[in-house]
Task: structure prediction
Amino acid sequence: MATIKSLKAGPQETALENFTKFYVKHYMSDGLDVLGQIDQTGHIADINQFLLENRSLTSEDLYNGLLTSRRGNLIELISALKTKFNDNGIPDTPWEDWFKQTVTELPQGL
Result:
């Protein structure tokens, strides 16, 4: 298994595309608070700033814009999540499964 940074260009692009689709979907629907608890680097803030400033765009345009304008932030965020990928850029745990599992494992309020 490889990290996002050790993937070759093609598989890394696949990994970024899949993660970005996941990210935009959850940003638009139920939020990504779980990522905010993991990312201590500020990359989520940069990504979300782009999304907020461009909220009038379609999901597809947001997706394409993130891949272009916030590529470095996406790579660093994925790296912070410590996700492993196969040689084709597919995560060892699908993003939706990872999200559900991570939400379940978070401490709940009193």
